[in-house]
Design goal:
Strand content: 5-15%
Low-confidence stretches: 1-8, 14-43, 292-313
Number of strands: 8
Largest sheet: 8 strands, mixed
Number of domains: 2
Distance between the termini: 59 Å
Shape: globular
Protein name: XrtA-associated tyrosine autokinase
Radius of gyration: 26 Å
Bound molecules: adenosine-5'-triphosphate, magnesium ion
CATH class of the largest domain: Alpha Beta
Keywords: ATP-binding, Nucleotide-binding
């Protein structure tokens, strides 16, 4: 119940004579004509006014316009494909990436996976394409019928999702972890892309790794996803071999997409990164920036999955 509604309830409970201040006879008839109305009627209209204000306040919370996602700016920053042909190719390639993720998220995979709706995009080293993959995977999943996607900026040091979506300065993940008075829903931003919500990184915090390890983290993730049956959480993250927090973040996930920059990241680095997430039930490996012929795709279609690689590679 809001403060205004509580005040209205209290006012209702008071005896009529206490509900409106007593005015002297001359004030009632001259300076305050409305006060000539019986006290109980005045009180009722005060209650109505308070209730109306409560309704207006609630409505004003609901009508916050969705956050505009500027696709032109995203293109300029190289975060979405530059033209329609590249967009179609990427869409095809991402289909192969998201199929097993969706199967697991809907319990249609080989075995049930705890927290399968939490998907973290990561890599061994910087600049392998994590943010590109997280953004395009989230957009692609948001186009799936019956799903909505909450894209969380879990790369606290770089916070590229926050930057490219123009969300700098907005409260986000760090704030809700550090301040128990904030509700997880307070940092969830509805966007104007259908079925896409975003959580920015929030204020930089030197205790990021400790906050990621806290019990509050699990509570916050439960609240981000738990009550929403069709909501998928997609996390961008920092490189697994570069910061401690991405490994901690991974421990809260059900599924991991490991992006590997083709021809650049060494086998040893990939093996070390895979080792750090080896406890997770599902790790998909995606080969990015592949130099294979364009007809075979630049991204994604060359993806392999760890389960398959374990045997043969
Ligand atoms: N498949 C792709 N197609 C086109 N451009 C891509 C692709 N993958 C990555 N890029 C480009 O490569 C650059 C690095 O990608 P991105 O920022 O996604 O990497 P990152 O792993 O998130 O880096 P960091 O570790 O610094 O956060 C970006 O300019 C991005 O536009
Ligand atoms: Mg990034």
């Amino acid at each position: 119940m809001s403060i205004v509604e509580k005040a209205a309830e209290k006012l209702k409970a008071l005896p009529p004579e206490a509900q409106a201040p007593k005015l002297a006879a001359h004030e009632e008839s001259e300076t305050h004509p409305a006060a000539a109305v019986p006290a109980s009627t005045r009180a009722a209209s005060t209650v109505e006014r308070l209730q109306e204000r409560a309704r207006t306040t609630e409505q004003s919370v609901e009508v916050v316009p969705p956050w505009h996602i500027d696709r032109v700016a995203l293109k300029r920053m190289g975060l979405v494909p530059a033209d329609a042909a590249a967009e179609r190719r990427l869409a095809d390639e991402l289909r192969g990436v998201k199929r097993p993720l969706l199967a697991n998220a809907t319990d249609k995979g080989a075995a049930p996976i705890a927290h399968a709706k939490r998907i973290m995009v990561t890599s061994a080293e910087p600049s392998e394409g994590k943010t590109f993959t997280a953004v395009n995977l989230a957009l692609s999943l948001a186009r799936e019928a019956d799903f909505e996607v909450l894209l969380v900026d879990g790369d606290i040091p770089k916070s590229d999702i926050t930057r490219v979506f123009g969300l700098g300065g907005q409260p986000g993940l760090m704030d809700v972890l550090a301040d128990e008075k904030l509700a997880p829903s307070d940092v969830v931003i509805q966007t104007d892309v259908p079925n896409l919500l975003v959580v920015p990184a929030g204020q930089q915090n030197p205790l990021a790794a400790e906050l990621f390890r806290s019990r509050r983290m699990e509570h916050v993730f439960e609240e981000f996803g738990g009550r929403h049956r069709r909501r998928l959480l997609v996390f961008d993250s920092s490189p697994l071999l570069a910061t401690p927090e991405s490994q901690v973040l991974a421990s809260h996930m059900g599924q991991v997409v490991m992006v590997v920059a083709a021809g650049r990241t060494g086998r040893q680095a990939v093996a070390s990164a895979l080792e750090k997430v080896s406890d997770l039930p599902y790790v998909g490996l995606v080969l990015n920036k592949s130099s294979l012929p364009a007809a075979m795709g630049y991204y994604g279609s060359q993806s392999h999955y760890l389960k398959a690689l374990k045997g043969g590679a």
